[in-house]
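Please, structure for the following, as tokens.
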Amino acid sequence: MTKKTFYLALLSLLLGAAGIHAQVRQTVAILGDSYSTFEGYIYPDTNESWYFVKNNPKQTDLNDVRDTWWWRVVKEGGYKLGVNNSYSGATICYTGYNDADYSPRSFITRLPQLGTPDIILIFGGTNDSWAGAQMGEYKYGDWKRADLYFFRPAMAKLLDDAQKRYPNARLLFLLNSELRDEVNSSVRTICKHYGVSLLELKDVDKLAGHPTVKGMESISRQVLKALQQ
């Protein structure tokens, strides 16, 4: 083999390897609540779901996983689905409905279970808003457990933990429409503090407070647009 042939062969191998590398799909993980659940597609499978193959039509018209917002995002964006750790009714803070302790299902508690994603989509705050969680003060470190029963310090710890645990992952926080103003403003302030991208969703069609097939399609379009920016 001549030197010229050798270098051409080497160049071909390098270009081939680069092409293979370019085709590697990014892995997307989801940390969410009921909006991101679907029977058989959440981890761990002990998490409670809102969407099922056989749904009550009075609650939702969605009964196919391919109609969920996250399935659409992964499929249409050319991504690979990693862990979907979503839990119906979950709050970011430790306080749930009727002042119950929701720490076992909170976003903070479930954050370490996302595997090794390239992109993390955090879709939360809805149940904190609906459950009437107290806001508390903005606090960006030295959290005590008692702090985490309030929304603002819990939200801050969630993003702080996410950046430390997944240093190379891209974070995008999804904020639902029609939430309390103080929840919205708190999320904006805390995302800005940590430099985390925020997507404020609009025009989400809902039934029983949850996205319909039409609503899921709207969410997926907005998320894909945000990821492509």
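The beta strands are 27-32, 80-86, 119-123, 170-175, 197-200, 206-207, 210-211. The first strand starts at residue 27 and ends at 32.
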